[in-house]
Amino acid sequence: MTAWSERRYVVVDVEGNGHQPPDLVELAVVTVERGVIGQPVVWLVRPDQPISPMARRIHGISNDMVASAPAFAELAIDVAAHLDQSVMVAHNAGVDLGVLQRKLPGFTPDAVIDTLRLARRLLPDQPNHRLGSLATALGLGRDLPPGSRPHRAGYDALVTARLFVYLAGSASSSSLSFEALRDGVGDGDATLF
Asked: pTM of the prediction?
């Protein structure tokens, strides 16, 4: 058995344009190494199609905000370098993984850990397992960088990283092994905002 903290993790969150399949407008990556959470790296991305009004209401990213942002092709090498040789972690990971695999053909993380599925398994008494609800219940949204807000990639990735570390190290009576944490990709809802 491998201690969970012996692996390198990249916690990922994507925000989309509200179309099907969703296109990327914001991406954040937060590393977790030796159980320590790093700082988020965040990219705004100019999508191929405009951001829908519904998506704008949820994440607050406007078409004007991404008008001068680079297209994903200009960021692909940098993004791939951040994801390289890591275990990917995300809340409802099927969505984030699907977007990344469309944008980075051939991207296959070493493994995927879905904090939604993990929270359902380790915190069965929670009324629901949405990221915002868990952040409130567990106090994960405190002391974040100024300007951070739910449904923005940097906030969601950092809160997911905190949730992951909480679940891996303190949700049970003892730290879990990497093998106990790894449970594959979560329920893939194709809707992304």
From this structure: 0.90
